[in-house]
Hints:
The protein is α+β, with helices and mostly antiparallel strands. The protein has helices at residues 13-16, 20-36, 38-52, 85-96, and strands spanning 6-10, 57-61, 66-70, 103-109, 116-122. It has one domain (6-122). 38% of the residues lie in helices and 23% in strands.
Amino acid sequence: MGTPGRVRPHLTDDQLSMPQEEIVAAQRQQLARLGLRTDELIDLARSAHEELGVPTVLLWNTTTDEVLPTPLDWEGHTNVHALPDAVYESARGALTDSCDGRTLVVVMYDGSNGMTGVYALSTQVGPT
């Protein structure tokens, strides 16, 4: 599928509390990792979208490299994986900003330091 046309970071509270140079360094590191796995993530999101029938986000634990596709809203529970409210709202906002099904939202987090990044990738992720 190739590199997405645009990647938009959505700042979360933990990033906003950091000095600007640390925010930039963290985002550069996350974007580099994201770029290495773009095709794989798009394929995973597409298959999850087809199976679940609803837009999904990918939750990526960068400590273990586990990537889990999930709908943000499931059986009435808006925060299925106990994401912090600010992270959930940022991810949901990134997902609903694009209603045409061309956005993949990836929530990257590091369990060792609690850092979370939310990225919206402009690309086709729905059924083709």
